[in-house]
Write a structure and sequence with these properties.
Layout lengths: L2 H18 L7 H19 L4 E6 L4 E5 L2 H6 L9 H6 L3 H16 L4 E8 L5 E12 L5 E10 L1 H21 L10 H18 L3 E8 L2 H8 L1 H17 L6 E6 L2 E7 L3 H18 L14 E9 L6 H17 L5 E7 L1
Parallel strand pairs: 9-10
Antiparallel strand pairs: 1-2, 1-5, 3-4, 4-5, 6-8, 6-9, 7-8
Helix pairs in contact: 1-2, 8-9, 9-10
C-alpha cells in the first residue's frame, strides 16, 4: 500500500469518526467546532480520487459513499443502499471469491484489501481496489466497516502487459531461435513432465532421436546460411509428422528429438519411418551425400514404461546409443530398443 493510500485511510477514519459519531455530551461550542472540522474533512475527502465509504455492520447498509463514485462508475451515491448493490455491480467472475473473502475477513475483525472489476452504468468494467478498516465498539464487536475504493485500472493494464511480456519471454526461452521448435531446455522440462505422467499411469513413453546425415559436409559445401535453412526445413518436416501434444525439439547442432507420450514401440517406429520418408521426399540437395545426393537422417528409437527408480537420463542415453547404431549401420536408417522400467 502506498503512502497516499495510508494517509487517505487515516484521514478517512478521522472524517468518519467526526461525521458519523455524535458527541452527545459535548458543549455547544465543541459541537460547532466538530461540525466545522467534519465539513473540512468531507471537502478534502471528496476532492480526492479515492472514494470513501462506510457500511453499518448490523444492517449491511451504506451509511456513506463519496460522490466520486458517480464520476467513476456512473452510479449515483443514492443508489448504493446495501452491500447487495456492491456485490451486484461486481464482475460475475470476481463476485463469489471477493464477497466470501471480505465477509470472512470482516467477521474476523481483520483489515483487508480486495481487487475486483466493478460494473459501470455504461456496461463496462473498471478495476477497483477496496481498502477496508474494521471498526469495533467498546465490547470489541464489529460495528462498521470504513474504507476507500481506488481506481486501479491503469495499474492493472500495466500488470497485464508485463505478464504478457513475461509469458512471451518465457516462451522464447523454451524455443530454438533458428528452427522455431523447442530447445534443449524445453526438452528437459517436457521429459520430466511426461516421465512423471507415464510413471503415474504406467503408460508407455517413446523417444526418437534424429541426426542429419553428413551435415558437416553439407555446411562445408553449401555454407552456413544454407545449412541453417536445411535445419529449418528438417524441423518443419519433423513437426508435421507428429501428433498435437508430441514434443519436437532441437537437441543440439544437427540433432533433433521427438518425445511421444502414450506411444508404444510399434507406433514410435512408425513415426520415425514417417519422418525418414518425409525428409527424403523433401529432396533437399546434398551433393556431398552418398545417398542420392539428397539430405537424409538417421534415427534412434526407444520405448519404455517407467517404473520404480528408473532414470530418464539413462533412457535418453540408451536411445542415443541406438542413434549411433543407426549411423554405424550405414545411416539413413532406424535402430530401436524397447525397455520396461
Amino acid at each position: 500500500m502506498n503512502r497516499l493510500e495510508n494517509n487517505n485511510i487515516a484521514l478517512g477514519a478521522d472524517f468518519l469518526r467526526h461525521e458519523m459519531t455524535p458527541a452527545a455530551s459535548a458543549a455547544a461550542g465543541v459541537e460547532g467546532y466538530m461540525e466545522h472540522d467534519a465539513a473540512v474533512y468531507r471537502t478534502l475527502l471528496e476532492s480526492t480520487k479515492a472514494i470513501p465509504w462506510k457500511i453499518d455492520w448490523a444492517t449491511m447498509e451504506f451509511a456513506y459513499i463519496g460522490p466520486q463514485i458517480e464520476a467513476l462508475l456512473g452510479w449515483a451515491p443514492s443508489s448504493w443502499k446495501t452491500v447487495q448493490d456492491w456485490a451486484a455491480r461486481m464482475h460475475p467472475e470476481d463476485r463469489e471469491k471477493v464477497v466470501e473473502f471480505c465477509v470472512a475477513q470482516s467477521q474476523a475483525g481483520t483489515d483487508h484489501e480486495a481487487d475486483y472489476r466493478a460494473l459501470t452504468s455504461r456496461g463496462e468494467y473498471v478495476w477497483l481496489r477496496d481498502v477496508v478498516h474494521v471498526v469495533r465498539d467498546a465490547r470489541g464487536d464489529v460495528e462498521s466497516l470504513v474504507g476507500f475504493m481506488f481506481d486501479i485500472s491503469e495499474r492493472k493494464k500495466t500488470e497485464e502487459k508485463l505478464a504478457a511480456l513475461q509469458r512471451e519471454l518465457e516462451a522464447l526461452s523454451f524455443k530454438d531461435s533458428l528452427t522455431g521448435v523447442g530447445n534443449r531446455r524445453a526438452f528437459d522440462a517436457s521429459l520430466e513432465r511426461e516421465w512423471s505422467a507415464a510413471l503415474r499411469h504406467a503408460a508407455p513413453l517413446s523417444l526418437v532421436m534424429v541426426d542429419i546425415d553428413f551435415f558437416k559436409s553439407y555446411n562445408d559445401y553449401y555454407g552456413h546460411v544454407q545449412g541453417d535453412e536445411c535445419l529449418r526445413r528438417v524441423a518443419g518436416v519433423l513437426s508435421s509428422a507428429v501428433r498435437p501434444g508430441d514434443f519436437v525439439g532441437r537437441f543440439g547442432g544437427e540433432e533433433f528429438v521427438l518425445l511421444l507420450p502414450n506411444t508404444g514401440a510399434d507406433a514410435a517406429r512408425q513415426v520415425a519411418e514417417r519422418c525418414r520418408n518425409r525428409i527424403a521426399a523433401e529432396e533437399i540437395a546434398h551433393e556431398r551425400s552418398p545417398f542420392r545426393q539428397t539430405v537424409t537422417a538417421s534415427f534412434g528409437v526407444g520405448t519404455t514404461i517407467p517404473a520404480g527408480a528408473a532414470d530418464p537420463v539413462a533412457f535418453v542415453n540408451l536411445v542415443d546409443t541406438q542413434l549411433y547404431h543407426a549411423k554405424d549401420n550405414g545411416r539413413d536408417c532406424i535402430a530401436a530398443v524397447n525397455r520396461v522400467g
